[in-house]
Specification:
Layout lengths: L1 E10 L2 E11 L4 E5 L6 H8 L7 E6 L2 E2 L4 H11 E4 L11 H6 L15 H7 L15 H15 L3 E5 L7 H16 L3 E5 L3 H4 L4 E4 L7
Parallel strand pairs: 3-8, 3-9, 6-7, 7-8
Antiparallel strand pairs: 1-2, 1-4, 4-5
Helix pairs in contact: 4-5, 5-6
Length: about 210
């Protein structure tokens, strides 16, 4: 599903990584590890078509956007879902509106994800649809982000330190749902420094500490 080939990225005049090649299949969970500054979040952004490689390619389901903004937007819309470290919600919008941002309506008008009410119930936020995002705790905001993934059902899920600011209960819910996405056929990539997250991943990729110096 994800194919990265001979990737190189520089930031601030130094090389984060180069010659990087790997695959993530449908149903696989890959943990990206490495020290702060090794470029874990940057690699996620490149896979997610938010950033571009200096050298190399990233393919999603056989499609490479390259430097085409249009193709990158289509890949983000049709295939990709995100769990950001800062939750990625619009603070002044309602919970329901934040969730609906992620919904994809296909040409036949069919939604492939679950309904918003069902998604909220599954993440323990039933009845909170009209609350504003900024009124929620950090754990509740991450639950909204999970609900947004449930209504989209993306082929690829990218998670950047998704448990770093959460208590044990919310962290467990995040990891259980990421496993559920993988069981449903999604390719899941998690950037993390948390050992309890790493051990739950079937595959691990450690970014070379030498690249972070």
């Amino acid at each position: 599903m994800i194919a990265v080939r001979e990737a190189r990225k520089q930031r601030g005049g130094r090389t984060l990584w180069e010659g990087l090649s790997f695959d993530v299949a449908r149903g696989e969970v890959l943990a990206l590890t490495g020290p702060s500054g090794a470029g874990k979040s940057t690699l996620l952004d490149c896979i997610g078509q938010i950033d571009v490689l200096d050298v190399g390619t990233v393919s999603i389901d056989g499609v490479t956007a390259g430097r085409s903004g249009r193709r990158a937007r289509l890949l983000r819309r049709d295939h990709l879902g995100y769990l950001f470290q800062d939750f990625g919600l619009v603070p002044d919008l309602s919970v329901q509106a934040n969730i609906e941002i992620g919904r994809v309506r296909w040409r036949d008008g069919v939604h492939r994800g679950v309904r918003t009410a069902e998604a909220l119930e599954r993440v323990g936020l039933a009845g909170r649809a009209t609350d504003r995002a900024h009124e929620l705790s950090g754990g509740e905001q991450q639950r909204v982000a999970l609900a947004r993934l449930l209504v989209k059902q993306p082929d690829v899920v990218l998670a950047d330190e998704p448990t770093s600011a959460l208590d044990e209960e919310n962290a467990r819910m995040v990891l259980d749902l990421l496993d559920e996405f993988a069981s449903g056929g999604a390719a899941v990539v998690i950037a993390t420094h948390v050992p309890a997250v790493v051990v739950r991943a079937a595959t691990r990729l450690h970014l070379d500490p030498a690249c972070a110096t």
